[in-house]
Design goal:
With 374 residues, the chain is an alpha/beta fold. Helix content is 20%, strand content 20%. The protein has a single domain, classed as 5-stranded Propeller (L-arginine/glycine Amidinotransferase, Chain A), CATH 3.75.10.10. It starts with 13 loop residues before the first strand and ends in a 15-residue tail after the last strand.
Length: 374
Amino acid sequence: MHTKVCSWNEWDPLRHVIVGRADGTMVQAPEPAVDRDWPEYGFPRGSWGRLPKEMEDKANEQLDHFAALLERRGIRVDRPTPLDFSRPVETPDWRQESMFGCMPPRDVLLTVGHEILEATMSYRSRWFEYLAYRPLLERYFREDPEFRWEAAPKPRLTERTYKKDYWKIFHSLSEEEKLERTRRRDWILTEVEPCFDAADVARCGRDLFVQQSTVTNAAGIDWLRRHFSGHRIHSVIFQEDQPMHIDATFVPLRPGLALSNRVRKPLTPEMIELFRKNGWEIVECAKPAHDKKAKLSFCSVWLSMNVLVLDPKTVCVEASEVEQMEQLDRLGFEVIPVPFWDVAAFGGGLHCATADVYREGSLEDYFPRQIPGF
């Protein structure tokens, strides 16, 4: 089968995609970057283990349904090869008692043009996650002579990468104090080495919007700026005390239109001005259908806006998110409802569960009027 790797944005017609798998996903063992505390579900702080089999089966059923839906629409779908995520892993610097999973390919793989870049990953439990995608990347490399296969420098993730006693201090803070830390971009990561997750990047042709967050530091954004020197890299933050991944906060839908979280307001005024100056409309997302996270999920209810755009007129939305579907219908989209709530605990929503391989279209400049210094 002929393979072509190329994708410049979040909305051009999708023709080839990777969809994740839930097999063997773990509540990962304790590590500096992660604080999991779910006593009501049998995983109090300090414990770990495989997510319940019945949850895994339901998640895989929904993932398989989603993959089949895309294939019926003429989109080629590939799947990762799960590892034994229950195994401990180690480097010369540390030992981690478990890995995580391979449901959210969007976290690991960043496609920009003819390149797929393996992200650094700032969790020790996710350091080796790229291996689940290596069989696919090796195949693409053989089949597409224009494919650029890149990997960002793997961070050492020693104790110097994380702020000492971060979680102990964080849990003692008031909500306002937590938000003040966000304004200062003061989260778990230090700046001793570049770290970023691919899901903190929103692609709009020549402009890449990168959220600094709990998994993406300023050094990581600087590395991306140097690596993608032909693009404009914009560092953005939003009003959220523990930000992680931009695709439940700010989602470009098509040229001239973006969906923004109704609660997590942009804290970069230049970002709003850039969109306004170039004629873009930013609409606040609809109210989520759920008022609390899914069982054993570290993802928020704002997966409601974690949509997958198939082309500028078609979008996939989680099937229970009626208000979000109605809003997108009013905005002129054909809306495809996809049952997906059972996947949330395995690492996210419809956008998280996918990684672009090929979208039709070419590199375009959607923001010709720039804001100096942004």
